[in-house]
């Protein structure tokens, strides 16, 4: 059945008055936020500002939030963390396929691994992968689920600068090809500006700044436009 207009235009995420406290301390203070379908958004904020708390709430991993949450069905949400969370006792392809089924699951898993540059590594063990390769495998694991919403919590935070830049290109490419809504949590301002079309800053439990990265979009760390956006944050 063809999707109707409502399905095409409804946001992937719609938060209203989202609030979360820990032991009486308010971390998320009534957040209102829409993430349109297919948009690449980055979420910045200093350490402890509540970025991971917000991402977990959107992922449906936190049952103690108040207010209202996400629209994307839970089965269409994938989450990538700073560590790959691959199971060390399963080979790479089996990690990617975990929890999926269907007769072409294995073929889809292989093709997802090829897309992230890991063709030929299907039978490797997770501890044989570099940090960057493990995050590639984590991306393949989320891709294979064909997510409408991809949530990523500092997925490149533990990688060296050169690997990180390769991963930026990969993530942007995957986004262009599959068009999920992406919410990328990062504390790297340049990463946010180069990758995302919209940059949010979480501050004092609220979205303190909501900046659209207009076209032409800075696409590398050498682009002079980058500095202009940096100054607006
Ligand atoms: P960020 O990801 O921006 O660094 P977090 O969302 O991890 O920040 O944390 C925001 C605040 O909420 C921090 O002060 C943290 O200590 C607190 N916090 C997060 N999770 C818990 C928890 N499970 N129990 C108690 N406090 C928590
Ligand atoms: Mg965090």
From TrEMBL:
Ranges for domain ABC transporter: 13-229
Q: What is this protein called?
A: ABC transporter ATP-binding protein
The record's listing under PANTHER family reads: ALIPHATIC SULFONATES IMPORT ATP-BINDING PROTEIN SSUB (PTHR42788:SF17), TAURINE IMPORT ATP-BINDING PROTEIN-RELATED (PTHR42788)
Which SMART domains does this chain map to?
A: AAA
Q: Which InterPro entries match?
A: AAA+_ATPase (IPR003593), ABC_transporter-like_ATP-bd (IPR003439), ABC_transporter-like_CS (IPR017871), ABC_transporter_ATP-bind (IPR050166), P-loop_NTPase (IPR027417)
Which keywords describe this protein according to UniProt?
Answer: ATP-binding, Cell membrane, Membrane, Nucleotide-binding, Translocase, Transport
Q: Which domain of life is it from?
A: Bacteria
Annotated GO MF terms: ATP binding
């Amino acid at each position: 059945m063809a999707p109707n207009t409502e399905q095409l235009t409804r946001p992937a995420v719609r938060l209203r008055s989202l609030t979360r406290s820990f032991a009486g301390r308010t971390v998320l203070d009534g957040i209102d936020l829409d993430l349109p379908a297919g948009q690449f958004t980055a979420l910045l904020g200093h350490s402890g500002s509540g970025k991971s708390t917000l991402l977990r709430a959107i992922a449906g991993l936190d049952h103690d939030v108040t207010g209202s949450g996400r629209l994307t069905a839970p089965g269409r949400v994938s989450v990538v963390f700073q560590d790959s969370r691959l199971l060390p006792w399963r080979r790479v392809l089996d990690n990617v396929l975990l929890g999926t089924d269907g007769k072409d699951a294995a073929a889809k898993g292989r093709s997802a691994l090829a897309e992230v540059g890991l063709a030929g590594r299907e039978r490797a063990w997770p501890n044989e992968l570099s940090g960057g390769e493990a995050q590639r495998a984590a991306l393949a694991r989320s891709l294979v689920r064909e997510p409408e919403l991809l949530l990523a919590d500092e997925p490149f935070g533990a990688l060296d600068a050169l690997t990180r830049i390769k991963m930026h290109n990969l993530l942007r490419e995957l986004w262009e090809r599959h068009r999920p809504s992406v919410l990328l949590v990062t504390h790297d301002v340049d990463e946010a500006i180069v990758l995302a079309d919209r940059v949010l800053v979480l501050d004092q439990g609220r979205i303190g700044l909501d900046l659209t990265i207009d076209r032409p979009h800075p696409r590398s760390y050498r682009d002079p436009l980058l500095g202009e956006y940096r100054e607006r944050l």
